[in-house]
Amino acid sequence: xxxxxxxxxxxxxxxxxxxxxxxxxxxxxxxxxxxxxxxxxxxxxxxxxxxxxxxxxxxxxxxxxxxxxxxxxxxxxxxxxxxxxxxxxxxxxxxxxxxxxxxxxxxxxxxxxxxxxxxxxxxxxxxxxxxxxxxxxxxxxxxxxxxxxxxxxxxxxxxxxxxxxxxxxxxxxxxxxxxxxxxxxxxxxxxxxxxxxxxxxxxxxxxxxxxxxxxxxx
Length: 218
Fold this sequence. Notes:
Structural class: mainly alpha
Shape: rod-shaped
Number of helices: 7
Strand content: under 5%
Helix content: over 70%
Largest sheet: none
Distance between the termini: 159 Å
């Protein structure tokens, strides 16, 4: 009886250890690299165009005017570059979408940036006119106004890049006119004040002399 009990305990011990030990996991087979699909040509033209559009946008700082569209374009460009040479069908699709989004940025941003450029010129132009720049600096004012009119014409024709450049030149010219007119005005005011102070001083001296004469007569 005792032997049977010992045997049963030994069997139970073996069973417990076998249940506690986790079964070994079979090794996962190494996935082979996906072969490049050589039947579909690499979308070189699409990649070049997408990068060219991105370069234009970055150079002219247009992304801030169309942030959502720019973000979409950037994501699709990254997807296209990642798939390039591996899955050219996927790469072409992503790059085509990037091109569409980059063009949307340009179409939306250029008019908005042109309007902002004009508003900046209008501000300094109004300030120059408020201190009589057309009268004080007629030649310089007309040169700035001519550049401004050229910018407006370019804007109306849809030549936004040219318009922005011209507005920038006009703003610089109007700022120069404003500063020179302001300096002229301040110099004239200082001269007038000097004359007024001289007259006042002369009047005071004359009054003092008159008072002295009248006092001596008493």
